[in-house]
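Aim 2 progress update. The chain analyzed this quarter is reproduced below.
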Amino acid sequence: MSRNPLEEIEGHGPFRTFRWIADSLWGLLIAHLAISLPLAVWLLWGFFKSMPFDLEEAAMVDGCSQFGAFIKVVLPLSAPGLITVGIFSFLLSWADYVFALILIMSDDRKTLPVGLASMLGAQDLRWGEILAGATLIALPLFVIFMFCYRYFVAGLTAGALKG
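Predicted structure tokens:
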């Protein structure tokens, strides 16, 4: 009797330790963090590099601690960059198909793009239902982008200046 090779190695070594990752949304979350965190660091690095240190220094001269200057001065000024990174990370994770297809096996944990793709049949295509599902998937992206548009554009252009 031949068994699946993945079943053979599942009970051994690191697979036994990290069994809670397989077929769970936590494993999918960790995979998305592994992709979106470097992107966020890269985008925010350019944004914070363009922010003048003199503002934080002036707040510390006025009596703020370093943490207080960060909370009261740097964080409000970095809102466009943080919102831009949040939108990019949300877009990257919301519409992801490949990670969810590979990491999630059970039907009750499928994400929206994988569930929508499972509606495609070999013989019949229910275009009305598929397009309605695609519209519902894209609607939150549209609403978020509509409300955060000006922060998004400001965040994209703020770290682009060299100086």
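The domain at 5-158 is CATH 1.10.3720.10 (MetI-like fold). Residues 25-50 form the longest helix (26 residues). These observations will guide the mutagenesis experiments scheduled for the next reporting period.
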